[in-house]
């Protein structure tokens, strides 16, 4: 469920991996891909949210550090490995171009976001719809555009992207960080510290906003399920 809070180990276990060292993991599941993101201060890449949290602009990843290229931030992000195979950048770029050229439906991407050290938020399923390269002032980097989808679209072939008014919104990263700190990493109802979710006090479907911490709280799985779309 989008908004679920999990640990790094739980995230790896869910995806059937002993570890998730790469931020980009194309084709890790039979019907989906996984990316790890962060917009925290000091994050290694410039990911960002747009359109009230319904769009993620995700930055590609750098050349691995080698003896003959000790400063990856000084060279263009690679599309191919040294052996001529696609990097993760190349795989994502190819998938986006295939969608744009009506060759394949949009790739489904599970997005996990680092909130603080050891704490991750599952942002749900996104559709990869575009990719390009641009200069960051020093070198060329890849950018990928992903649109928030709904969970039941995970196994469907979707060619059409819903209009802005029908898209799922993601709670902004700064709001999540403020809510986590304010609520002390515990359910506001029972004080549980496990199986937590970010919950809208006034549901989005009833006009509630994702943009302020005042309308977001931490709830455990039981109280989140009990609340559903009610205002408590």
List the helices and strands and how they pair.
Layout: E1 5-6, H1 8-14, E2 24-25, E3 33-37, E4 48-50, E5 55-59, H2 88-100, E6 107-116, E7 119-135, E8 140-148, H3 173-182, E9 196-200, E10 216-220, H4 221-227
Parallel strand pairs: 3-6
Antiparallel strand pairs: 1-7, 2-3, 4-5, 5-8, 6-7, 7-8, 9-10
Provide an overview of this structure.
This protein has 232 residues and is of the alpha+beta class. It folds into 2 domains: 5-170, PUA domain-like, CATH 2.30.280; 171-232, no CATH class. The protein is built from 4 helices and 10 strands, in the order βαββββαβββαββα. It has helices spanning 8-14, 88-100, 173-182, 221-227, and strands at residues 5-6, 24-25, 33-37, 48-50, 55-59, 107-116, 119-135, 140-148, 196-200, 216-220. The strands form 2 sheets. Strands 1, 2, 3, 4, 5, 6, 7 and 8 form an 8-stranded mixed β-sheet that branches. The relative contact order is 0.16.
Short description:
With 232 residues, this protein is α+β, with helices and mostly antiparallel strands. It has four helices and ten strands, in the order βαββββαβββαββα.
Spatial extent as radius of gyration:
18 Å
CATH class of the largest domain: Mainly Beta
How large is the share of residues in beta strands? 25-35%
CATH topology descriptor of the largest domain: PUA domain-like
CATH architecture of the largest domain: Roll
What about the largest sheet? Answer: 8 strands, mixed
Query: Which term fits the overall shape?
Result: globular
Helical amount:
10-25%
């Amino acid at each position: 469920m989008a908004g679920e809070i999990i640990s790094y180990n739980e995230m790896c276990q869910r995806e059937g991996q002993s570890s998730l060292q790469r931020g980009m993991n194309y084709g890790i599941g039979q019907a989906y891909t996984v990316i790890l993101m962060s917009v925290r201060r000091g994050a290694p890449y410039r990911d960002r949210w747009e359109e009230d949290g319904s769009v993620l602009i995700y930055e590609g990843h750098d050349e691995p550090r080698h003896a003959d290229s000790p400063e990856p931030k000084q060279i263009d992000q690679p599309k191919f490995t040294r052996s001529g195979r696609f990097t993760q950048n190349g795989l994502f770029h190819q998938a986006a171009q295939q969608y744009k050229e009506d060759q394949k439906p949009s790739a489904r991407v599970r997005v996990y976001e680092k909130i603080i050290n050891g704490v991750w938020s599952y942002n749900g399923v996104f559709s990869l719809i575009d990719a390009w390269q641009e200069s960051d002032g020093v070198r060329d980097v890849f950018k990928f555009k992903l649109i928030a989808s709904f969970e039941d679209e995970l196994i469907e072939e979707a060619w059409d992207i819903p209009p802005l008014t029908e898209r799922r919104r993601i709670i902004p990263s700064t709001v999540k960080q403020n809510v986590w700190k304010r609520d002390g990493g515990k359910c506001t109802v029972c004080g549980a510290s496990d199986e937590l979710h970010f919950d809208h006090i006034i549901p989005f479907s009833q006009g509630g906003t994702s943009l302020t911490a005042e309308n977001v709280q931490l709830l455990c799985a039981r109280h989140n399920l009990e609340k559903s779309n009610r205002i408590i």
